[in-house]
Amino acid sequence: MRVFVTGATGNIGSHVVGELIAAGHQVLGLCRSPDKEAALSAAGAEVLRGSIADPEVLKQGARQSDGVIHLAFNHDFSRFVQNCEDDRAVIAALGEALSGTEKPLVITSGTPIANTVAGEPARENNPILGADRHPRAASEEAAAAAAAAGVNVSVVRLPQVHDTMSQGLVTPAIAMFRKNGFCAYVGDGLNRWPAAHITDVARLYRLAVERAEPGAKYHAVAEEGVPMRDIAGAVGRRLGLPVRSLAAEEAAAFFGWLAMFAGHDMPASSALTRQTLGWQPTGPGLLDDLARLDARQG
Fold this sequence. Notes:
The protein is an alpha/beta fold. It contains twelve helices and twelve strands. It folds into two domains: 2-161 and 195-222, NAD(P)-binding Rossmann-like Domain (Rossmann fold); 163-193 and 224-267 and 283-291, UDP-galactose 4-epimerase, domain 1, CATH 3.90.25. Helix 1 packs across helix 7 (198-211), helix 3 (55-63) packs across helix 4 and helix 4 (80-98) runs parallel beside helix 5 (137-148). A seven-stranded parallel beta sheet has the order 3-2-1-4-5-6-10, with helices on both faces. The protein has a three-stranded mixed beta sheet with strand order 7-9-11. The chain has helices at 11-22, 34-42, 55-63, 80-98, 137-148, 170-180, 198-211, 228-239, 251-255, 259-262, 271-277, 286-291, and strands at residues 2-6, 26-31, 46-49, 67-70, 104-110, 152-158, 160-162, 183-186, 192-197, 217-219, 223-227, 243-246.
């Protein structure tokens, strides 16, 4: 199978490329940076020069392949809403190229948009928040529109994806811990963030594109929820920083844009994903990776 991968040189994308190639697939990787082309080629992928801002390049990559995994996303959270709307446009372009072909399109979203049932973790078949309440839902709204137009589209929802170098939203939190001279959590710190090791996430993307099940929703969740207090404690021990609780009204000053997530409880289940795909995470846990955190991070 020849798979077009956007975000192929990113942290998750590079692992997905390696996972696909190791499984015998061919990869066409989108790359906007000339200095990253060599690494992508060395991994065994063919390079398509361009960016997600160019819909014609996206359509070209989709048409030249047997399936698409869409991972690219602008993580500048100062313009998060616009980035999510940009992703809507990217998915629309990919969908236009794939409509009526039965080729699978696997897009990326986040587990928090399915935290819609009070007192329960996000589940794959939960109703989702709309983009008016959670901007990232724009990606799934675009996927639904593509499906209505005849595209074989499925969704992988991500938790905090981690290794020792990067840990999703934990990474900017670590930068804030360093800046403020202490690690912090909000209130009792028992709010939970789901997590999965990057190698397990890469394997899930491969399984999703191979299965090519229209309308499927998958949760790349190994740990249903790691308490924020434990996350702050693990980082504090690794970096030699004190750990403190913040009152809710102090969160914005400490966490900035991250305050909207810092005190939010967002556990997520992957029970249906495991049952459907036979996916069983084997990588280290989030706290294990934080205990071996690269000291240069942040």
